[in-house]
Design goal:
Elements lengths: L7 E7 L12 E7 L11 H14 L3 E3 L18 E8 H12 L23 E2 L1 E6 L8 E6 L2 E2 L5 E7 H4 L4 H4 L2 E8 H11 L10 E4 L8 H9 L5 H5 L9 H12 L18 H9 L5 H5 L11 H16 L5 H8 L18 H12 L4
Parallel strand pairs: 3-9, 6-11
Antiparallel strand pairs: 1-2, 3-5, 4-9, 4-10, 6-7, 7-8
């Protein structure tokens, strides 16, 4: 599953008084820890490292992580000081645990004023599985694309599951009926051992997420409005991949689609534009949205990173073409970043944009003055 890393490197320590090892005063886990606002909406490098540690220590297939993992304070305060257990669960058991977690979210309908948060704090996360929790579906039908090692997980297939004692004792029927034994390795010691073998994770790829996947983002109300008003297809809004870098071609498609602009005859003006994108690029050219340099170039560069200046230029031109926006240029550009994560940043910044930020600017352009 694709992912984006909008994060800062944090040093999270396990102090010696936690009795994790006799050889070191502490072990340092260096991870790209996503903000606490995203905890419970998808896995993070921190949960990825902890799940890997649990599997290494027990030899299990997957790991049911303790919660909460993200938050303030030392890492030791967020990892239970207990032993690891192993248990055998079927695909049906694991799906049931995840469906129970998914019930902690309200059904999502893209309407204004809806909360994106959990209605309770119990969030099960299973490392070693890939899956999606579609909150637009009714409870009991939200677990989508549940897979183990790239293959769909059948209801009757059994997997060995690593779990902490405190999590196993929570009272879930699936865990209570299938406990197999206790590992002699404490959970915290397992994390230290994992860190000593792999102190700096080379990369992170997201394995699970809630849908729509932009729910924790500042731009959520703006993207929701695009969906409600038919300016963005509902199915496409489920998987925005919000923290990935936006591309020029994506902005062209989103912007033209938001305004309902599409050409039937392909101009072939840009040799590097795929046929699927050409109707939207041609529409932007006809409405004088593209800047002069783009209109006179033989290449559109659809896969080039999207910069803030390009996004503001095209979206400002679109707003003027569609509604004759009367604001002066500075006021118009500030209106385009209103209620986005860019609102407090200099508009001259050369930064590339995330997909969520780009969609927020598109929404502001589409609904300017409304």
């Amino acid at each position: 599953m694709r992912h984006g890393v909008f994060a800062a490197l944090l040093l999270l320590t396990l102090p010696s008084q936690a009795a994790v090892t006799n050889r070191h005063d502490r072990a340092i886990l260096r991870v790209a820890a996503l903000s606490a606002a995203r905890a419970g909406f998808h896995d993070t490098p921190l949960s990825d490292a902890l799940g890997a540690a649990m599997i290494e220590a027990t030899g299990a297939d997957v790991a049911l992580l303790p919660a909460p993992l993200e938050g303030k304070g030392d890492l030791a305060d967020r990892i239970p000081a207990d032993l690891l257990e192993t248990t055998t669960l079927t695909g049906a058991d694991l799906r049931a645990l995840l469906e129970r977690t998914a019930r902690g979210f309200a059904t999502y309908d893209f309407l204004p004023g809806r909360s994106a948060g959990l209605s309770d704090s119990a969030v099960d996360e299973i490392h070693g599985l890939s899956y999606e929790l579609d909150l637009t579906r009714p409870p009991g039908e939200r677990v989508m694309h549940l897979a183990f090692r790239g293959e769909s997980l059948g209801t009757g297939r059994s997997l060995e599951v690593a779990v902490s004692q405190s999590r196993a004792a929570r009272g879930d029927r699936e865990l209570a009926s299938a406990r197999a034994g206790v590992s002699p390795i404490p959970l915290r010691e397992a994390v230290v051992a994992h860190v000593e073998r792999a102190p700096a994770p080379a990369g992170f790829e997201r394995s699970w997420t809630v849908l729509p996947d932009y729910l924790p983002d500042v731009e959520r109300p703006l993207i929701d409005r695009l969906v409600r008003e038919g300016a963005m297809p509902r199915d496409e809004a489920l998987r925005v991949f919000p923290d990935e870098m936006a591309r020029r071609g994506e902005l062209a498609y989103w912007l033209a689609r938001a305004f309902g602009w599409q050409e039937r005859r392909l101009s072939g003006a840009y040799s590097d534009v795929p046929d699927s994108l050409q109707p939207w690029v041609d529409a932007l050219a006809r409405h004088h949205v593209l800047d002069l340099e783009t209109r006179t170039s033989e290449l559109f560069q659809p896969f080039a990173p999207l910069t803030l200046s390009i996004a503001l230029d095209w979206c400002a031109h679109a707003a003027k073409s569609a509604r004759g926006a009367t604001q002066d240029e500075s006021a118009l550009r500030h209106a385009l970043v209103a209620n986005t994560s860019l609102a407090q940043r200099p508009l001259t910044a050369p930064d590339t944009l995330s997909r969520a930020q780009a969609l927020g600017i598109v929404a502001n352009a589409r609904f300017l003055g409304r």
